[in-house]
C-alpha cells in the first residue's frame, strides 16, 4: 500500500492542481466579447486579410461555443474540492436515562465525513487538466477559422485578378474586331477572320459569366467563415501580392511544432486528466474519516445538593470506514486508465497524420514557388513581348490575324496560370500555418 503511505505527503499538493493557476490566469487575461445576436450590417473591412481574420476569431459562434466550454470546464475545478455537508442530529429521550447527576433529556450530534486527503487533489487536478485542454481547443478553433477565412479570401483574390485580365483581353479583341472589319471592307481580309474574333469575344463573355458564379461561391464561403448573415459583397484588395517563398524553418522544425499543435496538446492534457481520474477512483476506495461532537442535556439530580447535579455531557468521536466493497471504484479506475491509453494513442495517430500533412503541404509550396517563378519571370515577359510584336505586325499586314489571336491567348493562359499559382501558394501557406499551429516565417522571396 505504497500509495496509502504517501497520502500524508501528498496532502498539501492535493489541495490545488498544478494547472489550476495557469487556467485561471489565462481566463483572466484572454476574454472575448460575444453579442447575443450577430449584427445585421456588414462590419467595415478595408479589403485586407487581417481584418477578416480578426472578425472571425472575435465573432464566430464556433469560437463562442469553444470559449464558453472552456469557462464551463474551469468552473468545475472548485467542484472537485467539495466535501460532504455536516449532519446535525437532534435526539429526544422518550425514556430518560437516569444518571447520578440527573436524567439525560436531549441530545445534539454533529457529524462530518472526510474523504481520503488525495481525493481533493486528484479531483481538482483532473478538472484543471480538462480546463487547460478546453483552452487549447479554443486556440485550435481560432486556427481553423483563420485557415478557412484565408482559403476563401485568396480564392476571391484570384477571381478578381482573372476578371481584370479578361476585361483587358476583351479590349484587345474589340480592337482586333475593328481592324478585321476594316480589312474586310477593303478586301484585304476574309469573313473568317471576323468570325474568329467574334468567337473569341463570345468565349470571353462566357468566361466572365462563369467568373460571376465562381465569385458568388467564394463570397458565400467567406461570409460563412466570418459568420455574416447578410449577402452584401465583401471586397478584396487586388493590389495585394502574396509573398511567394519557402518557409525559413526546416521541415524538421515545422514537424516538431506541428506535434505541439493546440489540438494535439489538448489530447495530451485529456489523457493526463484521465490518469488523474484513475487516481481519484483509487483514492475513493480508500478509508474515509469522520469526526463527531455530541452534547447531551442533563436535568437536575434527585438530590440538588449533589456535586455536579445537572451537568451536561459532551463527547467527541472519530471514525474510519472499512473499504470492503470497492469493486465499483476498481472498475472506475480501470475505465479511466483505458481512456488515458486510448487518448494517448489518438494523439500519436494525430501527430503522425499531421507530420505527413506538413510534408505534403511543403511539397505543394515548393511546386507553387517553382510555377510562380516560371510564369512571372519567364513565360509572362515572353508572352507579353510576342503579343506586342504580333499586334504591331498585324497592323501593317506582316502577320495573319490567327497569329495575333494565338499570341493573345497564350498571354491570357500565362496570366491566369500565374494568378492560380499565387493564390494556391497563399492557400497552401495558410494550410501550413494551420497544421503547424502558429505563424510560419517566410524565407527569401522567390
Describe this entry's structure for a reader:
Helix content is 65%, strand content 11%. It is α+β, with helices and mostly antiparallel strands. Among the domains are: 45-82 and 121-165 and 241-285 and 337-445, Outer membrane efflux proteins (OEP); 85-114 and 287-322, Outer membrane efflux proteins (OEP) (Single Sheet), CATH 2.20.200. The strands form 2 sheets. It has a 4-stranded antiparallel β-sheet with strand order 1-2-4-5, with no helix packed on it. Strand 1 (87-99) and strand 2 (102-114) form a beta hairpin. The radius of gyration is 38 Å and the shape is rod-shaped. Mean pLDDT is 86; it is low at 1-16.
Q: Write down the secondary-structure element order.
A: HHHHHEEHHEHHEEHHE
Instruction: Assign the CATH superfamily of the domain at 45-82 and 121-165 and 241-285 and 337-445.
Output: Outer membrane efflux proteins (OEP)
Large-scale geometry = rod-shaped
Number of β-strand runs: 6
Strand content: 5-15%
Report the CATH C-level class of the domain at 45-82 and 121-165 and 241-285 and 337-445.
Mainly Alpha
Average per-residue pLDDT, rounded, comes to 86
Main sheet?
A: 4 strands, antiparallel
Q: Architecture of the domain at 45-82 and 121-165 and 241-285 and 337-445, according to CATH?
A: Up-down Bundle
CATH topology of the domain at 45-82 and 121-165 and 241-285 and 337-445: Outer membrane efflux proteins (OEP)
Percent helix? 55-70%
Identify the strand order in the major beta sheet.
Answer: 1-2-4-5
End-to-end span in angstroms? 65 Å
Poorly predicted spans: 1-16
Class of secondary structure makeup = alpha+beta
Radius of gyration: 38 Å
Instruction: Please tally the helical runs, counting DSSP H or I stretches of 4 or more residues.
Output: 11
